[in-house]
Amino acid sequence: MNSERIQMRAHRRQQRVRVRRLLLTSLMLSLLANLTGSGAISATSSPSLAPTAGMQLVSPKLGTFVQQVRLVGDVAARKQIYMAPPFGSKLEMLAEDGALVKKGDIVARLDVKSIEEELDEQALSADVARAALVEHDRSTASEQVRLDAEIQRAQASVEQKTLALRQLEQGTRPEELRKQLLNRNLAQRALELSRSTLALKERLAAKGISSKLEILQARLDLVTKERDQRVAEATYQQGLAGATPLSRQIARMDLDKAQRSLSWARQNLALSREQAGLDRQKLLAQQNNVNGRVSLLRRQLAQATVRAPIQGTVVLSKAWTREGLKRATVGDDVQEGNPFLSIADLTQVVLSSELDETLLRDVRIGMPATIQLPSQRGRQFSGKVQRIGVLAHARSNRENTEGLSKVFDLDIWPDSENAAFKPGTSVDIQLPLVQRPNVLLLPRAALLREGGRHYVLLADGSQRTVRLGDANADVVVITQGLSATDQVMLPEGNARTDVGTDAGTDQLNSEPADPSGVAE
């Protein structure tokens, strides 16, 4: 906007120079007319004086007044997909820049030799991890069976000790006492029979019929029978006398010991299960880690062949390599996540620009736009405002934005696609802010000012005061003082002498026009 203001000041200085020249010309014409009328100089011209050399005549014309804002935008593809390698590797194959590709075509291929070698190693590690998990489950199941058996034995011991203590506390029942008496009698008879057998063996040995081995066996049997008889007698006597305090205490201690053994067996089972679970989780985590790595490597193998996601044009972009930031070529190392090419649909483009915040209320979505390409001067394209940014930001490409108004992002779509729109190039955009049809338009350079009065010089050299309406950098609306048949003088060298029927196509900038048209 500062550059536009400088242009305005230069335009006003040029206008003041033209005013002085026109006034001087008018004065000379008046003197010439006076001399002719007095007879000092013979005149052969008509009373209506023609313009002098260096002057042009223009006539106001009916047309449409247009006040526009001029913007500069950049051309970009509406749909451009940037592609980055899924892993760092060397480029084994790369499509040419600008190549036309279809969806699914191969545009690049990465070197995968190291990945294939690692995949073989990881596959072997996966088999080992799987076998370790199977062996762990088998050994865990075996250990669970052993611990369950210990718990069952401990439970049986607790039940036995509990029954024994209950019997001691309740005393011997009559039928149990009769059973003990019967056992004592049987043990006594067995003892007497063993004694008789030993005596018979000794007599036979004395006669040489029985051997010493038979005598030893008889004596061993006698010792066994004596022990059984004493146990049976003690059991019967204890049953007759009832349980003693000591026997009850011993029974209670045995029961407590059995219960502790059962509790320990259960705790051992719980700890064993917990430890087995932790070990299994560890083995499973190792297996999952190896399987995940195998899956990643297989996915990288599949992604090593880069295919075009859409139909379009290959655009090679600069990427960081070992040699620095450069356009990647075959053999270069590309980094994971660093885009090195893109596929752009060049059949549809968007023109991106910035809109000054002071014009936000004047521009709306759907507003028509006129587009010009620097490479095709004189040719115009039409478009419409498609998007206005939500958040304001500082102007782009400005090192110092202090004191400047903020801008909004602005997207414009051309009404028709054209091969002339090349992504990355710049375009000139004009947005009509004001349109007034059927008004009388006059080149702004034809206006003169004296004090607060605006006037023009007619073809005969006379002055005529005019009233002005809207104005832009090229034309001004004449509301009173001229008609379409009048002719006014315009110094040679002005930008335009024909205002046409659609004025304002070459607009100054985004600043509102001066209501007076030529205010200094």
Q: Which key features would you list for this structure?
A:
OB fold (Dihydrolipoamide Acetyltransferase, E2P); 6-stranded antiparallel beta barrel; disordered C terminus; 4-stranded antiparallel β-sheet; alpha+beta; 27% strand; 520 residues; 3 domains; Elongation Factor Tu (Ef-tu), domain 3; 42% helix
Descriptive report:
This protein is 42% helix and 27% strand. It folds into three domains: 190 residues, Elongation Factor Tu (Ef-tu), domain 3 (Beta Barrel), CATH 2.40.30; 69 residues, OB fold (Dihydrolipoamide Acetyltransferase, E2P); 161 residues, no CATH class. The strands form six sheets. Strands 2-13-16-15-14-17 form a six-stranded antiparallel beta barrel. It has a four-stranded antiparallel sheet with strand order 3-12-8-5, with no helix packed on it. A four-stranded antiparallel sheet has the order 7-6-4-11. With 520 residues, the chain is an alpha+beta fold. The radius of gyration is 58 Å and the shape is rod-shaped. It contains five helices and 24 strands.
